[in-house]
Amino acid sequence: MHHRFRPRRLARAALTVALAASSLVVAACGQYPNSIFHSRTDTNRDVGFLFEILIWFGSIVFVVVEAILIYTLVRFRRRGVARTPEHVHGNTTLEITWTIIPALILVFIAIPTVRTIFRTQAKPRSDALQVEVIGHQWWWEFRYPQFTMRSPTGKLDTVVTANELYLPQGRTVSFTLKSQDVIHSLSMPALSGKRDLITTHVNYLWFTPDSAQETAYNGFCAEYCGASHANMRFRTFVVSPSDFQSWIAHQESPAAFTVPAPGQTAANNTAAAQAPGGAQPQVPAGAQVQPNRNLNNGPLSGRATGTNGPTVPSAGAPGVGVPANAAPGTQTAVAQAGFIGFPRERMPAYTLPTTPVPADIQYSDPFGDPSRGAQLLMQGKGACLGCHTIRGNPSMIGQIGPNLTHIGSRTTLAAGLFPNDARHLALWIKNARKMKPGVLMPTIGVNEYDPQLGTTMKVGLTDQQIADIVAYLQALK
Amino acid sequence: MATTAAVPTYSGTSEHAETGLWSWLTTVDHKRIAALYLGTSLFWFLIGGIEATIIRAQLAFPNGKVVSAQVFNELFTMHGTTMIFLVVMPLSAAFFNLLIPLQIGARDVAFPRLNAFSYWVYLFGSIFLNVSWFIGSAPDGGWFGYTPLTTLAYSKNLNIDFWVLGLQILGVSSLAAGFNFITTIVNMRAPGMYFMRMPIFTWMAFIVQFLIVLAFPVITIALIFLQFDRFFGTNFYEIAQGGDPLLWQHLFWIFGHPEVYILILPAFGLVSEVLPTFSRKPLFGYPVMVYSGMLIAFLGFGVWAHHMFAVGMGPIADTVFGVTTMLIAIPTGVKIFNWIFTMWGGVLRFTTAMKFAITLVALFTVGGISGVMHASPPADLQQTDTYFIVAHFHYVLVAGSMMGLFAGVYYYFPKFTGRLLDETLGNWHFWLFFIGVNLTFFPMHFSGLYGMPRRIYRYDAGQGWELFNLLSSIGVAFQAVGTIIGFWNFWRSSKVGAIAGADPWGAPTLEWSIPSPPPDYNFATIPTVTSRYPLWDVKSPALTADVPPGVVDRGRGRTPPTIRIPTARELGIPMPNPSIKPLFAALFMTLMFASLIAIHKDKVQLAVALVIVFAGALTASLYAWLLTPLEDEH
Question: Where are the domains of chain A?
Fold first, then answer.
């Protein structure tokens, strides 16, 4: 096969291939959103430099070894009548040579390796943004302990979000990594190397995102953690410092939903009157919902406790002073608040989930009413309050699942699996276990089959009730 | 000089070489046990390959729907467990069994019945492990079984029970075989077979047995802790009770890294036999090959934590384990160069065995280079748990171990069966497998560097991974077709292959001085050895001059000549008697472990009763075994 080739030409060809391959690796980052060769943080630049050394030495060793091997195979293949080869048993000089050369190469690799180990594992800057990451089967909890506020009951709360990590450009972020259950591993290849989240052990990781570009990155769980390991993803948004301030201010505020006055609700519903199931009863607003609104206004005084917190933009207190005659829901307040979440239209294509929805969840998609949704949760319907917190909704104080206070401003659901829209949210509430195998979230839709229990749920929420809850959750910007 | 009394004829008859099922169940002949290991491990290779094919079918496209998340997790767990414990290790053991006694000039291993016991434990253990598929509880914790995921708190079903007990059973097999082979090599070498004259395969086998004997107790302890946690409520790893999941990781990898060398060194040994034969040259730098094998094994115990850089051990530990890992590259690199220079200046014959052996040299290098890349901890933090690692260890274990083992199968098949494998089919087997391996595993380097995590059953479109995953899946099809052709070759050639004769390759070592297949006593007269290449001393240079260019077809499809050679009894050679007792002991031991499963069916009393019954039966079998003399009185 190789007879036709001259060894030198072969070696040149091999070198060309190796160079092409390595340039492919470096040049092609655009198409590879999760590439480790993105150098948009200090850590990844250090690691990228190491990789350059490793890939170069590796390619050279590969080409040299394969070239000698192929040359040997071609040159010494059996031709015609066999001669008797000389029985060489070894050659000390040669053997010492090919012991020392690899050893020298390893020295050239080891020195920058050790330097990078100590640089990347040094103590982070003292003014770093602190983020506490808690791994759960199968979602991510991100807490910002430098940003705290008083809850209506006077408890000190921390800014907390799920599956979406916001980082300001140019500021070192220092992660404290913990796990609630099994071992997970925080992986955002375009930004940094991994670090495990271990139940009995606190880990640390830091890096500094560049100031170059505001964009979104994908994150993954990299340690096998059970049935839905593949479904444990997250998004990282690197935003400008002012947008980050604005986002934090919004996160510090309690649930943004204010119940529209009955008049508005009716007006709102006219559009939906034609929609299936649209002929809804009037919202029994008034007295029942009023406390909720008061709570929204309540924690203002506690804002000052955010010690390291940014100064809140004057309009940055969503839920505050929303005029009673404002547009439905809280849209106005949100608009005034400035940046409260990464704009959907700027989400890069690779951050938009493509997970298919199981075909066998039927949902009639009735029109939902947020006020009724709020009440259903207050009444404990669907048992949402057992696991979830909505700061501002006094009955929603569960601690097991993700905090839903600002779920409406998140871009994805179920740890990066689905887009956060009404349909996916409804399907998720109806039968989460079909959408994400093994998930702890129970099957809530009535008459839905629960694949973990192997039974059909006799009790649960109707499509209308789910639609109401979805409407409420979506309003929680 | 290597001399044997009965040389060039075919052995058709001998005292215990009856045919029939009973003869196989009771055999204590190391060559027959080798054949059992060979057949069983090749069967599991097919099963593990089917598991891999389903995995690749699922991952060929984004959001694949071939299998569910649970089944996918079971598949990758069982694929890894099967390929490591049920394929590469026992396939290596097939060669240990066949070759160690033949290469050192012995008539059998030191403990023939213990040898049979090892095989039966392996067989029953492998069946037990796979029975889990049929009751819908195949292990799903990964081949590494990290706690706390595998503790009762997070894995309530029987899946992990099968894994823990299965590995415990298989460990008994490996340990028993390890002690057996060490004793054989230390005590039973022929006169003049000094350590530094031993064939390099036996040397690597010797080193591997020490690795087994030192590494398997560690995983045994780790598994006992887990077994006790799961069945008896202890708290070694249970986090809710203050157990430490990292204890498992350290113990597992203190075993796990030497295990890597347990998997690769036998293949290195086989390649070191094949290359000199088909180069007509002695192994280049024999002493260095021996010492580098020892050094690799020794260093292999000091690098375990490089599997755990992401665990957060701190910069000092990262530095130490990173540097020790890099050191292993030096003796490994020396081996690569020594193999190349074994061929340099030789007369190379590209038989199928030779092609597989050269491929190990060429492609293990790729795995070695990527190995150095993750010896650098900061770089490893980007590689670990991505497909880059999957690419790396498949280059080591498929392009390395399996290529070497296939080289061994093609090279030693005539010694097993008396017949040569077909070279045309072998050529197809080789090239399809070669293309398939590269097409499957090379793109994984890219999917890994582009961020694809391991062990995910589905991934989003638009991540830049589609092309690489599709290529990998197409590659598996090539591997599958190549493997099927190879297995057809094994099956067909064992029936109608060309008659091999004692030494079809013109090879230098003792095993080729006796008939193929060898008589049950191997050597009529124990040879006296005076060099590393006794047969070449006898035959060279005259023989070297008329070495056939490839494989000469000497009577394809013909029945072997029925030249009768003397039986052991006629020669007055005492041979061990067949015995069914090792099989019973292995069976009862397996059942004793398996009985624990009843505990998790809430039948504690049943479990206790069964354990007592089977422990009693095991003890009785062992007594019966020990009270029966190995050989007849003479």
Answer: 7-79+90-120, 129-252, 262-475
- Among B26, B92, B137, B173, the active-site one is B173
Q: Is the dihedral of CA B383, B385, B386, B390 positive or negative?
A: positive
Q: List A residues 93-122 in contact with B (Cβ-Cβ < 8 A).
A: 94-95, 98-99, 102-103, 106, 109-110, 113-114, 116-118, 120-121
- Round the average pLDDT of chain B to a whole number and report it: 90
> Kindly report the CA angle at A87 between A83 and A89, in degrees rounded to 5?
155
Task: With CB atoms and an 8 Å threshold, state whether B377 touches A200.
Answer: no
Class in CATH terms, A129-252:
mainly beta
Of the pLDDT bands very low, low, confident and very high (cuts 50, 70, 90), residue A394 is confident
Q: Å from A178 to nearest chain B CA?
A: 12
For residue A121, the chain B residues in CB contact (below 8 A) are 314-315, 318
**Residue A415 in contact with partner chain B when CB distance is under 8 A:** no
**Per-residue model confidence (pLDDT) at position B484:** 97
Q: Does residue B9 lie within any of the structural domains?
A: no
Whole-angstrom distance, CA of residue A22 vs CA of residue A25: 5
Active site residue B30: no
User: What's the rounded mean pLDDT across residues B373-382?
Assistant: 94
In A333-466, DSSP assigns E strands to 412-413, 418-419, 449-450, 455-456
A223 touches chain B (CB under 8 A): yes
Residue at B196 is within a domain: yes
Measured at the alpha carbon of residue B522, what is the angle toward residues B515 and B508, in degrees to the nearest 5?
60
pLDDT value for A337:
55
Residue B392 appears among annotated catalytic residues: no
AA letter at B420: L
Contact A201 B450 (CB under 8 A): no
Instruction: Check B163, B248, B261, B339 and give the catalytic one.
Output: B261
CB contacts of A90 in chain B (<8 Å) are 284-288
Peptide bond into B517 cis (omega under 30): yes
- In CATH, A262-475 is 2.10.260.10: no
H/E element holding A250? helix A241-252
- DSSP, collapsed to helix, strand or coil, labels residue B178 as helix
pLDDT of residue A319: 36
* In a domain? residue B15: no
* Structural domain range at position B388: 21-627
Does residue B3 belong to any structural domain of this protein?
no
Chain A environment of B343 (Cβ under 8 Å): 72-73, 76
State whether A194 and B382 contact (CB < 8 Å).
Answer: yes
B261 is catalytic: yes
Q: What is the pLDDT of residues A75-88, one digit of tens each?
A: 998 887 667 787 78
Instruction: Summarize pLDDT for B99-122 with one digit per residue, the tens.
Output: 999 999 999 999 999 999 999 999
Domain count for chain B, please give it: 1
The residue whose two tokens read 């007792």 is: B581
B522: left (phi over 0), alpha (psi -120 to 50) or beta: left
Mean pLDDT in residue range A137-163: 89
User: Among the listed ranges A320-334, A358-372, B544-558, which one has the minimum average pLDDT value?
Assistant: A320-334
Q: What is the rounded average pLDDT of the residues A183-205?
A: 94
Query: Does A451 contact chain B (CB < 8 Å)?
Result: no
Any idea what the CATH number is for the domain that residue B165 is in? 1.20.210.10
Q: Which CATH number does the domain A7-79+90-120 belong to among 1.10.287.90, 1.50.10.10, 1.10.1740.10, 2.40.340.10?
A: 1.10.287.90
Is A77 close to B348, i.e. CB distance below 8 A? yes
